Each structure stands twice: as structure tokens, then as C-alpha cells.
Amino acid sequence: MAGDLLDSRGRGEAQWGLPAIHPEGRKFGIAALGISLVFALFAWETLAWPMAFLSLGVFAFFRDPERVVPQDETSIVSPADGKIVQIAEVAPPRELVIADGSGTRGLGEEPVTRISIFMSVFDVHINRTPIAGMVQRVVYIPGQFLNAELDKASEDNERQHILVERSDGVQIGFTQIAGLIARRIVPFVKPGDTLGVGQRVGLIRFGSRVDVYLPAGTGSRVMLGQRVVAGETVIAELGKQPLREGVSQ
Q1: Residue 108: phi, psi to the nearest 5?
Q2: Is 169 exposed, middle or buried (0-12, 13-18, 19+ CB in 10 A)?
Q3: Which of 8, 31, 127, 153 could form a disulfide with 157 if both were Cys (CB 3.0 to 4.6 A apart)?
Q4: Domain count, the chain
């Protein structure tokens, strides 16, 4: 059940169940299913079956499974399901650094570790906050729809920056980036909202990327090519810069 406490010693209760479908996707799935039924009524089976499979694909794309979110203060969790495609030292985006007139402080200008997570159309596309805290900024930037795996997608594509600050002043900036197929970023939060770690913040339709800008002095715990799970995989620990090595096989 959502909200239940589970731990690493086997306490709590977990059961298997079908994931929920996010309301944002139900209308698309129901529309595709309705068109399939119309085709079936007119005995147009060559069109009915593809539309039926399309409706199943839409429902699967918008699935919204529960996640068991780590609650310790040092963990930064992944904001997205997908594959780690880039880990680099870069300056944070200008929109997360400059004063925006709201009186809230932005990130520093010095380079930090950026972790880029690519989501294919087969991944869950609900994004979650890496830390608990208050939403300080939500900045939408219109742009292009280049392949989200490209480095320049961080600066050229349609994107939305989100800045979250903990009560102790620790800040995390992350960016939802539309991709080659994605055509809309749907936010669930606004400035002033208070979030728990791993809480849902938005989604991107259909195949995209999320960049996470770690706090200064914090390095990646994940490796290139590794798959991560939103709200569950710990991608970094505050103040630690571990070196991890892996072999692709």
C-alpha cells in the first residue's frame, strides 16, 4: 500500500499489483481503444487490431507504479527511470543560477556534476524529486526536439528547470528535456510547493531525458550505461565523491 513503511530488515508488507495509469494518459488510451471498437463494429479488423495494440501501448507508457523511496538525509534519488547516458562536470543552467526576481537564491556558477538520464518510450515517464524540500523555481523554456541523447539537447531542446531547496539550504536543480518524439512537458508542481523525497513532479510525453545537477562536492554513485529507477535508485550521497567502476557485459 502507498505510504507504508518498509525497511532493509524485512519489516512491512509488500504485495504485487498492476501499476496505476496516470490520469494524463487515460484519455489517450481510452480514445485509441474507442477507435479500435468502432473499426471492429464495421469489421475493419486490419485497422481494429493495430489500434487495440496502440491503446495497450499508451496505457503502458503512462503507467505510474509505486516506489519505495529511501528516507535517509544523505541520499539523492534518481528523478527518472532510464539509462545513464552522460556524467560530466558542467556549469548549471543560467535559469537555475541568475536572480529571477522572486527573492530566492539560485545555484552557484561553479561547475558541478551533471547526471543525464535518457528515458526510452518503454520507460516509466513520471518524474520525481531527488530530495525533499520546497520548490523554489519552475522555469519552462521552449526549444527544439533533437535526439535527447545528444549533449546539446540540454541547451537547445524544449525543457523545464526545477529547483528544490531543503530546510538546511541544500539545493538540487534538475531539468526535464523533451526529445525527438516527446512534444509536451507536463508539470505537477509550482514554486512554493513542499515535496517529500521521491514525490512526483511531472512527466514528459513520449521519450526524453532528465539532467540532475548535484550539489558542489558531491559526485555520482552511478555509472555510465547503468539503468536507474525513479524514486528508488540512489544516484549520489551528499558530500561524497566515490569512484565506481563497472564492466559492460
Answers
A1: -70, 165
A2: exposed
A3: 153
A4: 2
**Ranked by mean pLDDT, which of 30-34, 150-154, 175-179, 217-221 comes out on top?**
217-221
CA distance 236 to 226: 14
pLDDT for 147-169, tens place per residue? 555 555 566 678 899 999 999 99
Crossing angle of helices 23-41 and 45-61, rounded to 10°: 170
CA distance 205 to 22: 12
Pair 199, 220 in one domain: yes
Model pLDDT for residues 94-115, shown as the tens digit of each residue: 999 987 777 788 898 999 999 9
Angle ∠(102,105,106) on CA atoms, nearest 5: 110
Give me the catalytic one of 154, 208, 220, 248: 208
C-alpha cell, 171: 539545493
Q: Residue 208 catalytic?
A: yes
Give the residue numbers spanning the domain of 27. 20-64
**Average of per-residue pLDDT values in the chain:** 88
